[in-house]
## 1
Amino acid sequence: MTLTGNIYAAVLAAFFVGALFFYTDSQTSRLLQLHSTVYDTIGDIERFEEQLDLHLLKASFFIYYNFDHSHSQLRKIRKRIAEIRENAYLQDPVFAETLAEFGQYEVKLAEKEELILRFATINSLIQNSTTHIPSLTARYLSLFEQSDGQYFKELSRITSAVFLASRSLDKDFLTELRQGVNRLQEYHFKNDAQARMALTLGLTY
């Protein structure tokens, strides 16, 4: 091979080495970018779920808390999951296990969303009770000042149980509440108005 031929061969080899390096560097850069994007998205999901749990905690304590905050966080989480699923690089078979794990997470998220809906319904009933029952009790006492002392004690005990059940989340208070309501329903009143009011209280409990 002539000197010129050797030079051409060396230049061609350098070109292929450079092209290979450029391709490898480009692929590495894209993979790093993919990793960063997915990592940031997962971080967003974790942050949104923490905020969701915080909203649920607030809802259990504050009367008439707006559950739109919780639904908003759920929408944000689902949007981030969709972004990961639609990422072109993650369609490679090498990431099949990763996408499968996201599928399991989506199932758990759907279960959590169902529990949130149930919690919202039950919590609404409890919060309404904690505001409505005391006002009914006060009305009963204002109408019937000379009411049966034992009935009044039972009424006070149940009203306290409602508040304790709503704040402590202890099911034992629910048992006490049911027992108290049963005792209230056993009372008989000569005064029809008092009986009707007592019935209203019983139905409310």
## 2
Amino acid sequence: MSALQIMQEVPPGQAAPFVHASEEDHRDRVIISAAIGVSFVLLALVSRVIVRKSIVLRWGLEDSAIVLSSVLHLIQSSLVMIASANGLGASVTSYAPEQTKFLQKTYYASNILYVLALDMSKIASALLIHRLTTRDSHVRRYSSLVVIILPVLTIAFTLSTSLQCNLARPWLFVGQTCPHWFLRWKFHAAIACIAEFAIFIGPLWIVWHLQVPMPVKTDIVTPFALRLLIIVLTGLRMQSFDQQGFATKPTLAEAEYVAWTQWELTFSVLATIFPSTRKSFLNLVTYYNSGHYAQKTASTMPYGPADESIPMKTFTDRGASSGRILQQIGEDEEDDHGSETLIIQRRRSFAVTIDDPGESDLAVLGPRVDP
């Protein structure tokens, strides 16, 4: 129960409200943003499990990163709500010193988990793009570089967040002089925005030379493009920081800043799951060289099954009196269940029948690979 005194009279048989919004108590913003974030992430995790079961692909590093970022988000949001129950978002003058000390430790831990969860969601998106690229391609080398750089930045920013103000007791910020505290967060926000652009270059690069209709390219790029909205949320978070209020009443003045922090982190985790929808995967993955599963799921392709006949140009053999239409037939010739490489290409074969006087029709099969 909060130490703040609630002035309104509580009717008999009812409990007092958890938060009473006033000029000295803005905890409602913090709690609402954190609670909604937890609900959305839990719902997204359930959706992720359903989608993952419908796509028979081996468990990848991006799956582990998504789970880890979601778990870190849930723990971080829980710590924020615990800190709010002890005064985060309100004036600490109404709280006991023990509560204020516990509040600072909890908020300090939530900031570290915020950095880890936010950057882990970026790493998950980069790993997903890396998995969807072909081997020995320039876009794979680029995505590999992004995957390597992001963890290094995560470690650096985690250490920067951990060592602040009083190095002997870095969790203290009430009544402390922290001249470079907000400068560190500004630098972290700038690098985070650059990282979002770097991640978005990956899917753009993938579809640039992909020979598919423009609506398909749009379906592939759009889920990744949603991550760019994080840049807007980051700007709103930084704009809401009250430097003057942080020096006098940090727990009260930064309620809006903490709320925007929760919205930013929640959307970042959710944006990591957006590209995992079934339609996006089917647009990217042709199930080439995947054997029985390719035949099983061919009918679920958004643009028709693989064995659907597509008329092509008419060719006439030079030694024949007449020619017939060259007709494409889709066929998965190899049955290699061990191959799990995601290759953005379609394997086709075609049949040619030639009319030769005095001989029966001859069927010639030949492979063709379209990049």
## 3
Amino acid sequence: MKKNLIKILSLLLGMSILLPCSAAGLPKAESSDPDADAGDPETVGSAYAESVEVWKRIDIVLKSAKKYKNPYKDVDIDAEFVHEDGTKIHLYGFWYGGDEWRVRFAPTKTGVWTYTVTATDTDNSGLHNVTGTLTAVANTGSTDIDKHGFVKISDNGRYFVHDDGTPFYWLGDTNWQAPNYVSITQCN
């Protein structure tokens, strides 16, 4: 019983440390819309800025013109982002709740990106044939991902690199020994 309690408390302690840290790097919404949720990532829409830093996530927010009985099954949305140099990225969107749908995108290079969102329900003007443009600007962050891009497998498949080819040095650590240093009296 004592060991199980220590394990549970260690797990809760680890989660309380990791969860706030994992959300710390997300961009915050900057909007003139008073109803906008400040905890969301930056969004593109009628009241939102249409530029984003390279390698930062942005949400394309779409309002459905129709209600669906089961949004998970009744309609799918896809988006194609095209950079001014011809690079194409294809992404899927998802139902966010209510009449709201989103496509999450993180530009991989600076410049102008145009996008087209299509839906399987071609009669829904809020989701089908929605187009837009956004401008990706240089990233001003200080982390390796901000400076060098997302992590991917190298061309030879032997190690990890960032988008720009910079080696990715992976450091993993665990808290496996934490229960050995915590007593029941310290937990109370």
